[in-house]
Hints:
Layout: H1 30-34, E1 38-40, H2 43-49, E2 54-56, H3 66-87, E3 104-112, H4 122-127, E4 135-136, H5 154-172, H6 175-178, H7 184-187, H8 195-203, H9 213-216, E5 225-244, E6 247-262, E7 271-283, H10 285-290, E8 294-303, E9 331-332, E10 345-347
Parallel strand pairs: 3-8, 3-10, 9-10
Antiparallel strand pairs: 1-2, 4-5, 5-6, 6-7, 7-8
Amino acid sequence: MGGPGDPPEGTPEGGPVGGEDEYRSVVFDESFVRAARLQEYSAQERMSDHSPAVRRRPPLRRGLSRQALILVLLIAVAFGTAIYMGVRHPYQNATIRQPVEPLRMTVIPLAPEGRVPGHADAEYLYEHSPAAQFRVGAEGIPLPASRRTAHFSDSQVVSALTTAKDYIVRSSLDPDVLAGDQVRAVRVLLDTDQLDQFDQSFAHPAADGRHAPTGWLVRFDPAEARLADGRIRVQGSLQAAETDSSTLEVTADHTFVYALRAAGVAASEVSLFTVRRELHFRFDRDDLRMHTAQLVVSYVQAGPLSCAEDSTNRLHPLLAGRTAKAGGPAGTDPYATGSATALCGSLATSAQPRV
């Protein structure tokens, strides 16, 4: 009897014993047969259409294994990360931020030379004053045509101008701020490094050139005066300039004219109160991104006021018919472009309405 691996008829005569010929090492298993490029037609197929004895099979489509796909993906991610880090190194544009300067402020009260003019109609006073051609509210604070600088884009310059305008509007035109009831609307626009100084100014006002609330914003004593007309007249300008590769500065110079009447007296006459504010803002790239500003200089002239009154915390306007002793040197006109130099000045007659 032949062995398990011998042919049924036994080993052919003359062949190697045990059937271990030269072809025995070749194993035609099922996978080998399936992978063959040539395949024999069946007898029925050959009889029906006289096809050749064999046909060529399409090559097997073998996809990448899951492990190979994961490996390729990891290599691609690592390569992309390397390119990104090469283009934007985390320390490539890192700069040391300059310390934020504290606000330096000057508030100059302007005393009238005579009796404060008054009238029953606020519009009449406006028409007969230097503010006759002023615009109303935020319209009097237009943004200038802006252009990119050496290190800042058009959008960054516009952002600085817009933030400065927002600060001016909130600190000079917001009725709640003017009434002394609101400060948060102004505070949120300041650089975080100036918030301690801002809070200290309102918690403990002082005439030290650093901590006067009226240096940060315009507000009246609500027990003395209130707005008679919400259409505040405004005129001024905004200018932006680059000071260095990391800093933009915006200079604002605006005159605001308020129509006021005595608080609690409905029939009282209306008078005009003028405030000129020269503000210098500074912006670094963090400020531009956060829509905040560093207010570094605030120069304020306001009248009619009495030099005897403390204008540090709130403004105490002299209303229609009232008088005050003149203070300081020659009359100061807040509508003019010159700067007052005294701590208390005289309000020029030309700055008052003609009634």
